[in-house]
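Exam revision sheet. Question 4 asks you to relate a sequence to its structure. Input first:
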Amino acid sequence: MTGEITTPIAWLLSLDPMTFLSVAIFLLTFLWIAAVVWTLKDSIARTSNIWFHILAVLLVTVFTPLFGIPLYLAIRPIYYHPRKLYARAMLRSLTVQCDSCGTRNPCDHYFCLQCGDDLTVQCANCETYYPKEYLHCFHCGASKSHKPKEIHTKSSHKTVVKKTTATTKTTEKPSKNI
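Answer key, structure tokens:
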């Protein structure tokens, strides 16, 4: 070689016929084995039926990946095995998705690891912080839209509105009219 940069196709065409054939057979064999392994892994993830695993691998092995993979795709179950779905659900329950950037964060974090956005809301009833994804406070059960209870009492000359929560009690008095 004189230092020229060649493309892979030009390199393959420059080989003698026996070397070219050897490289082509090696690549096709590698792709065939990769297709069989992928088919087996996909069928295991979708069903626990051993006979279906054997049928799927035989389809791809006998009919070559060119015809076997489309046949397998036509007969494979649509949904994944329930244990795989359970694992995904468990992962979702242990993490909270950020509203701003979509990053999954651990449930006990108050701020997003990626963008720093707030991941929690404060309960209006008990003032506990809980993830924004939750519809109700996990401490007291109040919904997100829950407002503190208002108790109206009448005293001798004025109305006093008391806003009560689980931890604090405040009293608001109306302004005096002179």
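Marking note for examiners. Residues 40 and 108 are 38 Å apart (CA to CA).
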